[in-house]
Amino acid sequence: MKAAQSGDGGPIWFAALQQTAGRGRRGRPWSSPHGNLAASLLIVPDADPNLVATLGFVAGVALNRALATVLPKGKFKTGLDGADGEEGGKRARIALKWPNDVLADGAKLSGILLEAQPLPDGRTAIVMGCGVNVVAAPEGTPYPATSLRDLGADVDAQAVFEALTQAWVDTYTLWDQGRGIAEVLRLWREFAAGIGAPVAVNRHGDIVRGIFETIDDAGRLVVRADDDTRITITAGDVHFGTTASAAP
Q: How confident is the model at residue 75 (pLDDT cuts 50, 70, 90)?
């Protein structure tokens, strides 16, 4: 953001092998040990401001594609099943968790954070932050976490970064300043964790429970409640499958 405020219009990546003073969702402190990937992309898109928020789904699809290229071939799937691997007795190895995580068998492998800031010329600077657990996963987190090393992938952060930058170019081109968002969301749903499974969403202490039905055309989570009403959710902490019933 400092670069954007200084006049850099991007696109430009900032990447590190170690991060000691990062920022997570809702301003939470974040650190990443040496060997993991911490990367942020600065862009100033020429798009409708209402569509800028959908760049999080562009990032998710790109990251899913990138991880698929560096994981051991034939061992992992990027399919459609729930995060707990319970739907139809199948197991989705790599999947996207709404709104901003990548899971491997239900454990967090990577996270995405989008930040927006207006510029003096009226445009909006977007920073897409991405952290990938390459060699180590954090402990003591609210959700299980894993790393590429834990999954048997013998790759380093540079290889993951190169795969991510190429996948981002392809997916951002598909997004086409927001004109291609329908196709991006279709791909996101294809890679999604938990569709059709029980879900609990914590919205600042208000718990919404039901079935994760889909994401709508604006990227909002759609939950079908027990009385068959549909609840549209813009933001919240999500619990899937067997963890949904235990969500505080």
A: low
Model confidence over 7-17: pLDDT tens digits? 998 999 999 88
Q: Tokens 């790599």 belong to which residue?
A: 94
Contact call for residues 92 and 81 (beta carbons, < 8 A): yes
Instruction: Enumerate residues 6+ apart whose C-beta is below 8 A from 168.
Output: 41, 58, 59, 62, 66
Residue 56 pLDDT > 80, yes or no? yes
Long-range contacts of 79-85 (CB under 8 A, 24+ apart): 79/191, 80/190, 80/191, 80/192, 80/195, 81/193, 82/193, 82/194, 82/195, 82/196, 82/197, 82/240, 82/241, 83/193, 83/194, 83/197, 83/240, 83/241, 84/197, 84/240, 84/241, 84/242, 84/243
**CA terminus-to-terminus distance, the chain:** 35
Instruction: Identify whether the C-beta of residue 223 lies closer than 8 Å to the C-beta of residue 213.
Output: yes
Examine the pLDDT at 247 and tell me if it is beyond 90.
Answer: no
Torsion sign (Cα): 26, 30, 36, 40:
positive
pLDDT band at 91 (very low <50, low <70, confident <90, very high): very low
Model confidence over 153-184: pLDDT tens digits? 999 999 999 999 999 999 999 999 999 999 99
Residue 136 to residue 150: CA distance in whole angstroms: 8
